Amino acid sequence: MTRFRARGLTQAHVASLLSVVVLFPGSSSHAEEIPNEPASVSADPDGSLTPPVPSAPPGISPALATVENGGADCAVPALPTFDQLQDIEALPDPFTSLDGTRIAAKQQWACRRAELSALIQEFELGPKPTKPSIVTGAFADGRLSVSAGEPDNIVTFSAAITRPADAPQGPIPLVITLGGSSLTSEFTSRGVASLSFNNGAMGAQGGANTRGQGTFYQLYGSDHAAGSMIAWAWGVSRIIDALEITPAANIDTHHIAVTGCSRNGKGALVAGAFDERIALTVPQESGAGGSASWRISQVQHDAMPAETRDDPNFTTQTVRTAQGEQPWFRANFGQFATPNVPRLPHDHHELMGMVAPRALFVLDNTDMNWLGNESSFTDAVAAAEVWNALGLTGTMGASQVGGHAHCNGLPQDQLNELGAFVDKFLLGRTEVDTNVLRSDRIQPDRARWLPWSTPALR
Known about the structure:
Helix content: 25-40%
Distance between the termini: 28 Å
Number of strands: 16
CATH architecture of the domain at 134-449: 3-Layer(aba) Sandwich
Shape: globular
Radius of gyration: 21 Å
Mean pLDDT: 88
Structural class: alpha/beta
Strand order of the largest sheet: 7-8-9-11-10-12-13-14-15-16
CATH topology of the domain at 134-449: Rossmann fold
Low-confidence stretches: 1-63
């Protein structure tokens, strides 16, 4: 079988990831070393590397990766063509590799994650370019300026960083909000800085006819295959690059969160999935292209009465309508519209799973049929099995509660749950309880959608 090797991570670099150092905000330079197993990098017979997934004491997310893509050296088999894809009626098994074998060890998750990344880029979102050769950052008057590109073509963008008035003088955690967020105060009230990223300027979402517009496409060309959500994820990664080399910004780059709501919630999930330096990902009411499953959403849509099946006030968004709404996806994603939805070789429980072993908290609204209430919560329950398999229950959570407006007015219990994730995974308060996986209405049909078993990865 033909195999392709991604570039950018040497064997020595992978080995260095075996020793994970945790420095929570305000801690001394004496770090706690998290034990890992196995104690060496394994090599496949063809010489390719299988990077480990760091283990961690209960309650601590092994989130402190220092690279954007720790699986860059994984050998990913050649992907099938669209014509070679087979129907998968249930949610695909996240633990079955492309060669048909199931992973059995925690250290194998990194390369299984690389396979999922390749599938999602190839068939849905488009390719995310690696870090360009030039990335610089500057901080002045409360704004971070980022320049990125190659010697013959460099783009520049900026974003304001707001630091809580009572924050300590040293580096503090940061939340990056896509398009602003009603949740910002839940972070800043805990001493977390905020950065509002104008993702629409990075990759336009002004209608289907705005494909190829924005800062990302000025660098890579208007015909680049990436949809706008990958453009946003690329922009978030360059922000992190710039923060890492700009001490004047005074940000703890080991404790960065990303969030957004609705269309920007989709983008927050994609950004968190595709950059391992993000410690906490919080997609809010993200629906199709976010926390919802394409398969379950299609079934939910088809079960609607004929007179309301295509009414956005009643029905659920599907591949067909999402692909036509905005250039969020690669241009040919529409080939998976009904009746071809089951041909997708992945689904969004696996996009969420790509965040593992880092922290993920999914916020949803049961009242939002359009966003796929049944679809989103069932998908989150399926995604949680990845963390369960890694022995990290409580590092991923989901809370779906209705009775409030879209993106606003969350009940206090949901805000408290979010606060617990911020406290634990950005502020290091390891005693906080983050075991939450609940909906006020939806009971997932596990027999139909999760026919696979969850391995206890050794």
